[in-house]
Specification:
- This protein is α+β, with helices and mostly antiparallel strands and 343 residues long.
- The strands form five sheets. Strands 1, 2, 3, 4 and 5 form a five-stranded antiparallel sheet that branches. Strands 8-7-6-9-10 form a five-stranded mixed sheet, with helices on one face. Strands 19-18-17-20-21 form a five-stranded mixed sheet, with helices on one face.
- The longest helix is centred in the N-terminal third of the chain and has 23 residues.
- It has six helices and 21 strands.
- Helix 1 packs antiparallel against helix 2 and helix 4 packs antiparallel against helix 5.
- The radius of gyration is 31 Å and the shape is flat.
- It is 33% helix and 35% strand.
Length: 343
């Protein structure tokens, strides 16, 4: 993308698809040259030359154009305009049109079992960007497009292929970083900590037995070991992580970024993501003893911050969170009668 914010997605055809139009253009050129030579030798008049050239070459030229034409998509993000350029070689035409918003890119399998990239804009309008034989090729092309247009990439079942929040994350220096909201799961219940400790201990014992079974034969240059024991070790270790990991959520509202930190004891890992909008907090009743407190963002995505056995503590936490983020709280415990609450 250049300094003016214009990105161009250039269309292209496979080389084998260009064989037929090349033959058409070459044959048309041969006919024109042949009649041009005949006209200069006096065997045909000028008007006959023009008429015969048009009648014989025009169908060939039209076929060549149809089978070699590609589309280039020009996007002026700053001025909210796009242009579809229909091009044959370096010759093309198109005009700028305005859009309110680029929504997302999607991949669809059409009736011919080909994978089609569609760019959706202005909520319910779309353009077909390109068609590919394989899904992998379509995804690779779409990946480059969404990175430059700052939009999400979906499959037909609405699952993400690539998300805007996972790419194009601007690095923020510590002096410009602000942590406006910090939400932590705290610590695991004591009984879960005990189970995690037992699993880690069992993993260490299993790892010890694994090393005991390793046999190294220098003469025959062979190494023997029991891989099954290593599988047991890894299973015990990851089960221990499942009972001991906790998550922290950091929100930098000034820079529209959030970070999820996974902690296991003193060890932690996490990275920053971007978000477009923080929409609202909701309290949802999953069953008679589970009330979920969620943060909804980017219109259709959410975090589950906590699970409560009773409604009152869930509502209290929802109000605290809605006040911290400066957004509304939705009581969605009754799907037929959801209610907006003050924070």
């Amino acid at each position: 993308m250049n300094t003016e914010g214009i990105y161009v997605s250039k269309g292209r055809k496979a080389w084998w698809k260009l064989i037929f139009p090349t033959i058409c253009f070459s044959f048309a050129l041969y006919i024109i040259i042949r009649f041009f030579n005949d006209q200069h030798t006096g065997s045909t008049s000028f008007w006959v030359f023009i008429l015969v050239s048009l009648l014989t070459t025009l169908p060939l030229i039209v076929l060549g154009i149809v089978f070699s034409m590609v589309k280039d998509f020009h996007f002026n993000i700053k001025n909210k305009k796009y242009k579809i350029v229909k091009r044959v070689g370096f010759i093309g035409f198109g005009s700028w049109k305005e859009f309110d918003k680029l929504n997302y890119l999607s991949i669809h399998k059409n009736i011919n079992d080909l994978h089609e990239l569609k760019l959706w804009y202005n909520e319910n309008k779309h353009h077909s960007i390109a068609i590919f034989k394989t899904k992998k090729a379509a995804i690779e092309a779409g990946k480059d497009l969404v990175k430059n247009l700052f939009i999400d990439f979906y499959e037909p079942d609405t699952s993400f292929i690539y998300s805007e929040e996972e790419i194009n994350v601007i690095e923020i220096t510590d002096d410009k970083r602000t942590i406006d909201v910090h939400i932590s799961e705290g610590t695991r219940p004591f009984w879960q900590t005990i189970i995690a400790a037992m699993l880690y201990t069992a993993a260490l014992v299993s790892l010890y037995f694994f090393y005991q079974t390793i046999i190294i034969d220098i003469k025959s240059k062979k190494v023997e070991f029991y891989f099954d024991i290593l599988e047991i070790t890894s299973t015990l270790f990851f089960a221990g992580i499942g009972f001991s990991v906790v998550k922290d959520y950091l929100f930098d509202l000034k820079n529209n970024q959030y970070k999820i930190i996974f902690r296991v004891g003193p060890f932690k890992i996490g990275k920053w993501y971007t978000f477009r909008s923080l929409d609202y907090i909701s309290v949802f009743k999953k069953n008679e003893s589970q009330y979920l407190v969620n943060l909804w963002y980017n219109k259709n995505k959410h975090f589950i911050f906590s699970v409560h056995k009773n409604l009152d503590p869930a509502i209290i936490q929802g109000k605290v969170l809605s006040k911290s983020f400066g957004i509304k709280l939705l009581d969605a415990t009754d799907p037929q009668n959801s209610t907006w609450l003050g924070n």
